[in-house]
Write the structure tokens for this entry.
Amino acid sequence: MNDAMPIGTDLLVLAGHTAAGKPTLAAHLAKVLGGEIISADSRQVYRGMDLGTGKDLVDYRIGDFTVPYHLIDILPAGQRYSLYDFQRDFQTVYQDIHSRGKLPLLCGGTGLYTESVLKGYFLPDAPVDPEFRLSLAKQSDGELTELLKSMVPLHNQSDTTDRERLLRALEIARNAPFREHPVASVFPMKAQVFILFFDAESRRKRITERLSQRLESGMIEEVQALLKTVKPEDLMYYGLEYKYLTLYCIGKISYEEMFNSLNTAIHQFAKRQMTWFRGMERRGIPVHWIPGELPLNEKLDLILTS
């Protein structure tokens, strides 16, 4: 393992809001430290969902060198991937990287995934329960949200924005209540946590510009291709880009409505991400804040000397 990081560091974490430039910084850190990237993104696990999830895999190539990465493109679109699945896969990859004397670098914007690693959340798998779902059929989303709050701490607000997510969260909470608990020998670990961020005005500008670029690069065509094998309602499950672009592709909304609604939704999502990461710090996780407007070499220096 490279000596640039403090002795005893088990994991380097790079998180931040969407469009902050995490992949570029993570790749250069991994190259300098001889590390490997583990994705902490709940949607980048799916093949064929590239522009919509912001994979930016080109950023993992630095000259002739490609930084090794994990938990990206491991499932076909249309399947479901849970926190339980992530915990299981993270442990396997983490232990493999360490066994080869490399430094794991967890990179992504899914706050729940990141915090589950840092605090050792334990969430066993829960099977789909048709009878339980049927018993909830007549309850409103608001009523189901209150039920979920009564069962578990509501760390992941995105579970309440989609009925399918809400039902799944209730199934999991009913099967095995959410709690903090060290998992196997991996937790607790000594981690260094860095949050990459831009001020609100710069963040909004970057998000809008990136959305335009992704649309010009073929994000609509990506969704059209996915719709050949994935049902519209299943594709919309995967979040903002896939929800609004699917509605546009099936003729439910205009291009202008799609762009404006999606742009606003991504801004709101980025704000929630920052709220989550500030909350992580309040919940006792030491965090180093890295201003996104700094040149790359200065960001690297800040991290490597922290």
